[in-house]
């Protein structure tokens, strides 16, 4: 096993996370995630509820990162206007929205019964 190559790969992946964090949507997801985790700490969640919260947070952030990567590739491959470029970007953005909506529903299912 080439440890040097492995360490470099991790470095590139961390740099990818750092780069994605410069995106405005990504910042919104991260701030939302912090707010949800603080609410979770104040409310008191079971281990299983924390698993669900952490899962949906990472799914939304991961989906946003894949969306950003797709946007970059589309911008590179098709800087000019093209219907397929629009389709790729809109479907990728739609995927993030699907994850985000599901996470809101899961969050409400977890928090609302504890608050009311
Ligand atoms: N090359 C393109 N060809 C056709 N439609 C595009 C292209 N780039 C973006 N669009 C579309 O224009 C609309 C506005 O997109 P958006 O505001 O995200 O701009 P963007 O160019 O994708 O932004 P970014 O600066 O993040 O790349 C979306 O429906 C998107 O799919």
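-> sequence recovered:
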């Amino acid at each position: 096993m080439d440890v040097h190559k492995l360490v470099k790969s991790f470095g590139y992946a961390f740099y990818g996370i750092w780069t994605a964090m410069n995106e405005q949507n990504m910042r919104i997801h991260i701030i939302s995630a912090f707010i949800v985790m603080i609410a979770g700490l104040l409310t008191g969640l079971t281990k299983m509820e924390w698993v669900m919260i952490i899962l949906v947070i990472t799914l939304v952030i991961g989906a946003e990162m894949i969306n950003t990567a797709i946007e970059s590739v589309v911008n590179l491959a098709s800087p000019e206007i093209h219907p397929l470029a629009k389709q790729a970007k809109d479907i990728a953005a739609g995927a993030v929205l699907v994850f985000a909506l599901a996470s809101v529903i899961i969050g409400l299912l977890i928090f609302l019964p504890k608050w009311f």
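The CA atoms of residues 23 and 68 lie 8 Å apart.
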